[in-house]
Amino acid sequence: MVKTVSYQKLIPGSVAPDFLLKGVDNKMYSLKDFNSKSFLVVFICNHCPYVKARINDIIDLQSKFDGVDLQIIGINSNDPDYEGEGLDNMIKFSKEYSLNFPYVVDDTQSVAKEYGAVCTPDPFLFDVNKKLVFHGKINDALEPAMTPSHNTMEENINRLLSGLAIEKEFDPSIGCSIKWKH
């Protein structure tokens, strides 16, 4: 595990880079499949202790909003040959945690590079026009053993849905580094 802090490649107002990725449900997903008022792209994986610690917070986030207000997609950009990764392990992870959002594989790692994702979890929040409004942490629990006391992403989604400005457009996430192919 290499602890990594996210950095900002996409700047606020940037349009979400499109993708066409296969999900654990065997469906193909692209940006056009998501038409909610807010759209959360989260780079996650199967083995990272930071993802395992926050995955229920992400699931709860999707549960708090209907599909009109929020849609989430989890993208796994880790090298599929890395231990614990790959589509078969993603399917197991999806079932184990009862994911309530699509979980897709970026096996070429091109989507992570376009977004500038470097860690897991690495969340990107977009508005109805798929323009970036916030890149950063799910909540203030930055280490796996911590319990969150402030739900950063939920607050920003509520602000976005209420027409209010996001006060801090970049608030770095911390997690395991994406496992790049060599």
How would you sum up this structure in a few lines?
With 182 residues, this protein is an alpha/beta fold.
Q: What is the radius of gyration? A: 15 Å
Low-pLDDT ranges: none
Q: How many strand segments?
A: 11
Question: Largest beta sheet: what is the strand line-up?
Answer: 3-2-6-5-4-8-9-10
The outline comes out as globular
Question: What do we call the CATH topology?
Answer: Glutaredoxin
Show the helix and strand layout.
Elements: E1 3-5, E2 20-23, E3 28-30, E4 38-43, H1 49-64, E5 70-76, H2 87-97, E6 103-105, H3 110-115, E7 119-120, E8 122-127, E9 132-136, H4 152-161, E10 170-171, E11 174-177
Parallel strand pairs: 4-5, 5-6, 9-10
Antiparallel strand pairs: 1-11, 2-3, 2-6, 4-8, 7-11, 8-9
What this model shows, in words?
This protein has helices spanning 49-64, 87-97, 110-115, 152-161, and strands spanning 3-5, 20-23, 28-30, 38-43, 70-76, 103-105, 119-120, 122-127, 132-136, 170-171, 174-177. Helix 2 (87-97) links the parallel strand 5 (70-76) and strand 6. The longest helix is centred in the N-terminal third of the chain and has 16 residues, at 49-64. It has an eight-stranded mixed β-sheet with strand order 3-2-6-5-4-8-9-10, with helices on one face. The radius of gyration is 15 Å and the shape is globular. The mean pLDDT is 96. The chain is an alpha/beta fold and 182 residues long.
